User: Which sequence fits this backbone?
């Protein structure tokens, strides 16, 4: 069975989305790198390292992971434009990659909430 081929207009839309996803992913990676430097400078000389510092490092690591996960679907969408005969396969690969990235973002938001609640409880007592 032959695969669906996107039109030139659809390919242009996918190409723009691919570029934007790649830029957003690289931005997340750079943000994670800057946060990592900031986290390291914050914990130098801190004894003991508390949950807030651990949470900051965890969120930083997840930020970098999300950046990488956003770059992967961008590559799949770019392949749709560059090749023929695999449009739907590449689209579904890209969609699975986006679903994974957004799942990690959702997990990150939950972790941030947990760490905020832990800090709030510590302030309460």
Assistant:
């Amino acid at each position: 069975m032959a695969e669906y081929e996107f039109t030139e207009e659809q390919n242009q839309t996918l190409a723009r989305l691919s570029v934007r996803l790649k830029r957003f992913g690289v931005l997340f990676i750079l943000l994670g790198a800057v946060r990592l430097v900031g986290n390291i400078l914050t914990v130098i000389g801190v004894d003991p390292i508390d949950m807030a510092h651990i949470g900051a490092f965890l969120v930083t690591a997840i930020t970098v992971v999300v950046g990488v996960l956003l770059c992967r679907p961008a590559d799949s969408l770019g392949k749709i434009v560059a090749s023929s005969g695999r449009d739907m396969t590449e689209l579904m690969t890209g969609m699975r990659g986006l679903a994974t990235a957004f799942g990690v973002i959702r997990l990150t938001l939950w972790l941030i909430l947990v760490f905020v609640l832990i800090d709030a409880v510590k302030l309460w007592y």
About this structure: Residues 8-124 form one domain. DSSP finds three helices and no strands in the chain. The helical segments are 8-43, 51-82, 87-124. The chain has one domain: 8-124.
